[in-house]
Amino acid sequence: MASKTKKAIKISQKHLLGIQDLSINDVNLILNESQSFIKLNQSKNKRLNVLNGKTQINLFFEPSTRTQSSFELAGKRLGADVMSMNMGNSAIKKGETLIDTAMTLNAMHPDIIVIRHQDSGACNLLSQKVNCAVLNAGDGRREHPTQALLDALTIINRKKKIQGLKIAICGDILHSRVARSNIYLLTMLGAEVNIVAPTNLMPKEIEKFGVNTFTDMKKGLKDCDIVMMLRLQNERMTSSFLSSNREYYEYYGLTPDKLDHAKPDAIIMHPGPMNRGIEIDTRLADDINKSVIKEQVELGVAVRMACLKIFCE
Amino acid sequence: MKKQYFINANIIDPFNSLNENGGLIISEDGKIEAIGKKVNSNNLPTREKPIDLKGKYIFPGLVDMRVFVGEPGYEYKENFRTLSNAALSGGVTSVVTMPNTDPIIDNVSIVDFLKRRGRDKSKINIFPCASLTQNIEGTNMTEFGLLAKKGIIAFTDGVKTIQNTSLMSRIMNSAKDLDCLIMQHAEDYHLSKNGMINSGIIATKLGLSGIPDIAERIIIERDLTLLEKNKCRYHISQLSSAKSVEVIKERKNDIKFTCGVSINNLSLNENDIGDFKTFLKLSPPLRKEEDREALVQGLKDKTIDVIVSDHKPEDEESKRLTFSQAATGASGIETLLSLSLELYHNGSVKLDTIIQSLTSNPAKILRINKGNLSIGNDADFCIVDLDKPWIVKKENLVSKSKNTSIEDKRLQGKVTNTFVKGKELFKI
Q: Which structural domain range is residue B14 located in?
């Protein structure tokens, strides 16, 4: 692999808190490293021992199925001792602050902490208080770097490049950390990014990140190579942002007639979990010729293995 | 007390339009006996040894209109004793305390308690505010008249805004009947819901909910519309945006009211929040540089009447949290003057104007005989080395809480001595 010859390149950051902190070299380092794990994950013997003797703690303050299992599997396949803590029913409920939890865990000498938290910036706070590397598995609506990296890897594997592609990110951008991380990463890698959302779900001044914004989905999808759908995050909506799910589906749900405006060979992505019939037509979600949603999950493990390996070193 | 003589000082007393080199004589009972250029070494009795201030400045003791004290209920954040020490080190000799305590200052009996505590524990002049509504719930008015008779000089819900327009209208009518001052924190709650910082690119980047500037403007415009009919003494506690300054500048032509600004909003902008600095989680929030510039301009052209510290001490446990969980507010009474002087040193605002908005203007609005150096008044004043450089260090702060918004900032100008009723209570 190319990464072997470029062994001298090192990651510039101690922690993976967000795509915003990474340089293009960092991103290429992670993506190259990930490639080598894709094959491994498809082979019979999936176990390596590069992280033998290392301790990985998964600290999940928010419920998560795919990200948590993906990180857990990634750590185990690299030989690390993985401990997953579901914080929903632990010390936090007894009034312990994030910093105290961090200090407690730090005293157990982990090598890496993977954290998901409902508050933006929680991983930044944690990283200031512990000695080991911190990987952000999603903080509030700020960043979800490994999701963006696995999305980029999926696109590269399908389209062989990112530079020059036209990518639409559609849906609940306001509440989405996936959207933010993807905007940073895909624009960094040279894609043209269209953001499609109703004004009520469009973050303020998002165009300053160098993206085009659309409220009309058909216009936003025009000639796109990639259509990335986001989940409508009803649980984060505190007041009326939308009139109804059915109206949302009518205007912002991905349906065959809207997809017709994209390029004929456009692929569909979704970070999951999906709300079928709200942001995406169920037939499109399952269309093996267009949808790469399962591939995203598969490559997610490879990307997380790469991140664990790189940031553990 | 012995008579005290100071000579060779630069005296600025905006109330008496005094700005000259001269001296100050304090009588045995702590009053100002003489002041100005006529007080000099040539006409003092030879047996007296005057203190030569060698060109340092004398300002009236500052009047800070927006201060939070933890008493009662949050004594671990700040009590009257620690507050007065912090105030004195910053040249502040009179403070208006907010009613957001536990319990809320909303009835006559708690005012009695407060005045006793203030008298026994405080070294500076304490002017407590009472709340506009009972338990600051925004539904029932407090007894403005009875509270005023107990010595309450202003009414405000402090960190909270009266949302109900009809209630606000009635509050203004009562305030008019009873000649009371009401002070509003301007924030529309529906627009600011869950908001933590200014709405815009920084909020989008940090993934935090924003507070748009219209949340402030809508309340200001609503209140000023009410004020057209219900003419009472009305003061907007703090402005934060260019748009608010614009609205106020225009409306000041036809309606009588006053407004203030926090030193934080005059000195910092949203970029200073950086990587989730919880000490800069403030209300109103820090906004864009254009907003800050407009506020400075508003101070300069006297659209804005008063600078406040918005001193809100918070203990470490309330700030060592994620940004959304952290408490709002910054400790700032002891850096109020030095940070304001930055506006003078960088040529933005005249020294007279700055001192006026820290002394005589708040005193006039509050109708208290403070913030001036008139003959016969209590000798409340500070001596300032206008050029002395210093660095704000958390560990050197006097306040019980160390949540300064300007940690490690380099400042120019420091209070070297503070006097209350002629007694030197602070000295470097």
A: 4-58+379-388+410-427
Domain holding B51: CATH number?
2.30.40.10
Residue B227 belongs to domain with CATH number: 3.20.20.140
Neighbours of A107 (CB within 10 A): 9
Q: What average pLDDT does this structure show over B6-15? A: 97
Show residues of chain A in contact with B193, CB under 8 Å: 238-239
Residue B142 maps to a domain: yes
Q: What are the tens digits of pLDDT across the range B46-59?
A: 787 899 999 999 99
Q: Determine, yes or no, domain membership for B397.
A: no
Domain shared by B80 and B112, yes or no: yes
Helices B214-229 and B242-251, packing angle to 10 deg: 10
Give the DSSP letter string of A201-217.
Answer: GSPTTGGGGS-EEESSH
Give yes or no: residues B294 and B423 share one domain. Answer: no
Fold type of domain A145-295? Rossmann fold (3.40.50)
The count of domains in chain B is 2
Chain A residue with the nearest C-alpha to that of B318: A97
Residue B232 · residue B172 · CB < 8 Å: yes
B74/B118 same-domain check: yes
Q: What is the dihedral of CA B120, B125, B131, B136, to 10 degrees?
A: -70
Q: Does B210 touch chain A (CB under 8 A)?
A: yes
**Chain A: residue whose CA lies nearest to B212:** A204
Q: Is residue B400 part of a domain?
A: no
Residue B169: how many CB atoms within 10 A of its CB? 17
Residues of chain A where predicted confidence (pLDDT) is lower than 70? 1-8, 89-94, 236-239
- Looking at the domain A2-143+298-312, which fold is it? Rossmann fold (3.40.50)
Nearest to A121 among B193, B276, B317 (CB): B276
pLDDT of residue A3: 46
Residues of B assigned a catalytic role:
310
* Chain B residues close to A205, C-beta within 8 Å: 200-201, 204
CB B175 within 8 A of CB B144: yes
| Contact status, residue A213 vs residue A195, Cβ threshold 8 Å | yes
Question: CA–CA separation, B79 vs B68, rounded Å?
Answer: 10
Structure tokens at A21: 């902190």
Task: List the domain boundaries for chain A.
Answer: 2-143+298-312, 145-295
Q: Which residue is listed with tokens 């960092």?
A: A26
Rounded average pLDDT over B227-239: 96
What does the pLDDT read at residue A6? 47
The Cα of B424 is separated from the nearest Cα of chain A by a number of Å equal to: 43
pLDDT digits (tens, 9 = 90+) for A93-128: 667 788 988 899 999 999 999 999 999 999 999 999
For residue A50, the SS3 value is coil
Concatenating the DSSP letter of every residue in B26-72 gives E-TTSBEEEEETT-SGGGS-TT---EE-TT-EEEEPEEEEEE---TT
Find the CB nearest A204 among B199, B276, B323: B199
ipTM of the complex: 0.90
Q: CB–CB of A99 and B325 under 8 A?
A: no
